[in-house]
Write a structure and sequence with these properties.
Helix content is 33%, strand content 26%. With 263 residues, the protein is an alpha/beta fold. The strands form 4 sheets. It has a 5-stranded mixed beta sheet, with helices on both faces. Strands 9-8-12-13 form a 4-stranded mixed beta sheet. Strands 5-6 form a two-stranded antiparallel ribbon. β2 and β3 form a beta hairpin. α3 packs across α9 and α5 runs antiparallel to α6. The protein is globular, with a radius of gyration of 18 Å. The model has no long low-confidence stretch (mean pLDDT 93).
Length: 263
């Protein structure tokens, strides 16, 4: 097993860590604003990495290692895989953060596939695995983007990227105070009912800063909403990740630095 470095570039900044014997260790934040900054951060973790796995928020063509668009890191748009590989002299994998969170499912013990992963933080990311644990891609070149999915709320309709992202939660907290968590949880449950009916997963992974922050406040309302699934749709196992660094585990799998085993 090669050792290397994994990076997650999201709406709340860049996180980076080493992969040693298949385990992600020493995760920390890094100020990154250019490809040269990213290369320097990688080499500071491991001066001679066997590989580098990058997860980034945005539309990513993972086959070509091209970042089509990224609000979180516009500077990375373009041929990030080739540019970074040349700078660090190592093989590089670049995938969207939704796919990274989905691949993190392969590191869960006893997980049943297929599965979907939804990351809830500053932005909302989505990824899916088939019944063999392989990534499912949409028809286009870039990964999934369900941000513009219409979401029904008490105040009408909004889009998922707002209603389930950090901005939407902030609005709820400003308007409803301590009651915001419950309202958000039911909103999330409504979205999950639709997503489960479409993808029919056996496992759902919920991850990201909002999941960590709200914790068990999500569990009851989400379970209640999923009990409303049609009888023809099996209710999935829902896993709540306790880590803000879940995407790093998936990036390690994508880069061949970790095997799909328990974590």
């Amino acid at each position: 097993m090669r050792n290397g470095v994994v990076v997650d570039m999201g709406g709340s900044g860049t996180r980076i860590g080493a992969v040693v014997d298949g385990r992600v260790v020493g995760v920390h934040g890094a100020p990154v604003a250019t490809a040269e900054d990213l290369a320097a951060a990688v080499l500071a973790v491991d001066p001679s990495p066997g590989g580098v796995g990058v997860s980034i928020t945005g539309w990513v063509d993972a086959d070509r290692g091209v970042v089509e668009t990224s609000r979180a890191a516009a500077w990375a748009e373009g041929r990030l895989r080739d540019d970074l590989s040349a700078l660090v002299d190592a093989p590089v994998s670049v995938i969207g953060d939704g796919d990274a969170h989905a691949l993190a499912l392969t590191r869960l013990p006893g997980v049943e596939f297929g599965g979907i992963a939804i990351s809830l933080g500053t932005t909302v990311a989505f990824g899916a695995l088939d019944r063999h644990g392989a990534l499912i891609h949409p028809c286009g070149r870039a990964g999934w983007d369900l941000g513009h999915w219409r979401l029904v709320t008490d105040n009408g309709t909004t889009e998922v990227w707002w209603g389930l992202g950090g901005h939407g939660l902030y609005d709820l907290e400003r308007e409803h105070g301590d009651g915001a968590a419950e309202i958000y949880a039911y909103r999330l449950g409504t979205f999950l009912v639709d997503a489960v009916q479409l993808f029919r997963p056996r496992t759902v992974l919920l991850t990201g800063g909002i999941v960590v922050g709200l914790g068990e406040a999500l569990h009851g309302p989400v379970a209640e909403q999923l009990r409303g699934l049609p009888v023809s749709v099996a209710s999935p196992r829902v896993v709540y990740s306790p880590s803000r660094d879940t995407a790093l585990f998936g990036a390690a799998v994508a880069a061949g630095l970790a095997l799909p085993t328990g974590w």
